Amino acid sequence: MAGAKPSLSFWQIWNMCFGFLGIQFGFALQNANVSRIFETLGADYNNLAILWVAAPVTGLIVQPIIGYLSDNTWTRFGRRRPYFVLGAL
């Protein structure tokens, strides 16, 4: 069968999880400094919660819209490639 998924051993799954653990440490270290960066850029301490919530709320609104548009878009470059290019800019 061409579509059969390969079976992964315990150690292959362990290695993938261990790699993602390192990525999560990187994200945690980066996020630990975001409040200080916001304050350095001039944000008031009382408004930090609004800044932390802004990105998830924006994603909640924008992602379904872009998903709908990309599902209904057909160009000579493909369905999603124009959105990848615009998102990369």
Describe the structure.
With 89 residues, this protein is mainly alpha-helical. The protein folds into 2 domains: 35 residues; 43 residues, no CATH class. The longest helix is centred in the C-terminal third of the chain and has 24 residues. It starts with 9 loop residues before the first helix and ends with a helix. Its main location: membrane. This is MFS transporter.
Keywords:
membrane, transport, transmembrane helix, 2 domains, 70% helix, 89 residues, single chain, MFS transporter, transmembrane, mainly alpha
Which word captures the global form?
A: flat
Order of helices and strands: HHHH
* Most strands sheet: none
The number of helices is 4
Query: Share of helix among residues?
Result: 55-70%
Rg, rounded, reads 20 Å
Instruction: Domain count, please report it.
Output: 2
The averaged pLDDT comes out at: 89
Tell me the total number of β-strands. 0
Secondary structure class reads mainly alpha
- Estimate the strand proportion: under 5%
- Distance from N terminus to C terminus (CA atoms, Å) equals 40 Å
Which regions contain 5 or more consecutive residues with pLDDT less than 50? none
Would you kindly provide a brief summary of this structure?
It is found in: Membrane. This protein is mostly helical and 89 residues long. It has helices at 10-32, 34-40, 48-71, 81-88.
